[in-house]
Amino acid sequence: MPFGLVSSWSKRRGKKSKDHSDPWVYKPVEFWQLEDQTPHATKKHHGSSVFTLKEMEDATCSFSDEHMVGKGGFGRVYRGTLRSGEVVAIKKMELPPFKEAQGEREFRVEVDILSRLSHPNLVSLIGYCADGKHRFLVYEYLQNGNLQDHLNGIGEVKMDWPLRLKVAHGAARGLAFLHSSSAVGIPIVHRDFKSTNILLNANFDAKISDFGLAKLMPEGQETYLTARVLGTFGYFDPQYTSTGKLTLQSDVYAFGVVLLELLTGRRAVDLSQGPSDQNLVLQVRHIMNDWKKLRKVIDPELNRSSYTRESIATFANLASRCVRIESSERPSMIECVNELQMIRYTNSRALGMPLHTFKIVK
Ligand SMILES: Nc1ncnc2c1ncn2[C@@H]1O[C@H](COP(=O)(O)OP(=O)(O)O)[C@@H](O)[C@H]1O
Ligand SMILES: [Mg+2]
User: Fold this and answer.
1) Which ligand places an atom closest to the C-alpha of 80?
2) CATH H-level superfamily of 46-140
3) Which UniProt keywords are present, listed alphabetically (predicted)?
C-alpha cells in the first residue's frame, strides 16, 4: 500500500459499505488511486488527525457566522479552536450534488498529498473529517488571510515593496519545493496557484494552500496530457489550455501572474473592466521591459521610498518571462527563487535597510 494515510483511512472506513459506485462511500484504494500516480514516496506523512463531525461543530460554535473567515469553490472556511486549544482553519465541503464526485476527489488528493508535505512555505494540514457525507479539511490557521485581500485593500496592512518581495520569494520557494523531487520523490504540479491560495501568517511568511488539483508528474515525464483543463481563470497557462498538456511550467505561468498582481496591485481578472482590459497579463505583458510605460502601472499604493527603479525593472522582467506563451521559454521555479533573492538583497541594500534583517535562505 503506497500511501500510509490511504491505508489507515481504508481500514477505518472499510467495514462501512461495499458499494463501489457511489463516490461518497468507502472504496478500496485501488478504486480511487490517482491515475498514473504510482508514488515513489520517500517521506511518510507526519500524522494527520482524524476528527469527528462533533469535534468540527464544537470547534466552530456549530459553524456560526462569527467564525467564518472566507468562502471558496469548495465551501466556507471557519476559524476554529480544537479541544487541545489549537486554533485552526476548518474548510467545510459544501457542493451541489453534481459536483460532489469532483469534490470528493479533490478532498482525497488534498489529504493524500498535503499530509505528506512539510515545508515552511506550504500550509500544514492538521487533519480531516470524513464523517458520513461530511467532509472537512483542518489546516494551521494563518492570521493574515490571503494575499489578494491585502493587495486589494481589504487587509489592514499596506504591503510595501520589501514585504511584497518577501511574499514573492516565499511563494517561489514553496513552488520550487513542490517541483523538486524532494517533496514526495517525484515532482508535483500545483495547478491552482493564485493570490487567494497564498496565505500569510502573522509574520507575513507566504504559505501555499489548496492542493486539491495537484498532480504528481509520472516519473520521467515532463508533460501530462489531461482530458479536462482545471484551474482558475486569469492564471491558465495558454499552452495547457490549448493542448491539455500540463507541465511544471504551467505553475510558473501562474506564478508570473501573481508577480504582476504584486507589482500592479491589480486583479488577475477584473470583470469591472471592458472585455479587452479584463485580463492582467494581456494588459501589461508587452510593457514590462519599457520603463516609461512600466512606471505607470506600478501599484499607486506602493510607498515610493520602499523600492528602487532597478528592483522594479528586474522584477518586471522576471514576471514577463514567467508569462511567456511558449512554456519552454519560462524560467524554472529555482531560477525564480534565486532571482527574487537577489532582488530582495539589492533593494534592501540600495535603500540602506539593515542587512541583518535579510537572511540568505537556501
Ligand atoms: N488556513 C487558513 N487560514 C486562514 N484563512 C484561510 C485559510 N484557508 C483559507 N482561508 C481563507 O478562506 C478563503 C477561502 O479559501 P478557499 O476555500 O481556499 O477559496 P479560494 O482559494 O478560492 O479563496 C481564503 O481566500 C482565505 O482568505
Ligand atoms: Mg484557497
Assistant:
1) 1
2) Phosphorylase Kinase; domain 1 (3.30.200.20)
3) ATP-binding, Cell membrane, Kinase, Membrane, Nucleotide-binding, Phosphoprotein, Serine/threonine-protein kinase, Transferase
Residue 269: Cβ within 10 Å count: 15
Spell out the CATH class of 145-351.
Answer: mainly alpha
Side-chain-facing half-sphere of 149: CA atoms under 13 Å: 16
Q: Which atom of ligand 1 is nearest to the CA of 75?
A: 17
Ligand 1: nearest atom to the Cα of 139: 1
pTM equals: 0.85
The tens place of each residue's pLDDT in the chain, 362 residues long, gives 333 333 334 333 333 333 333 333 333 333 333 333 434 333 333 567 999 999 999 999 999 999 999 998 889 999 999 999 999 999 999 988 888 888 999 899 889 889 889 999 999 999 999 999 999 999 999 999 999 999 987 666 679 999 999 999 999 999 999 999 887 888 999 999 999 999 999 999 999 999 888 888 876 677 777 767 777 889 988 888 888 888 999 999 999 999 999 999 999 998 888 887 889 999 999 999 999 999 999 999 998 899 999 999 999 999 999 999 999 999 999 999 999 999 999 999 998 876 445 444 44
Spatial strand order in the sheet of 76-81: 49-50, 125-131, 134-140, 87-92, 76-81, 68-71
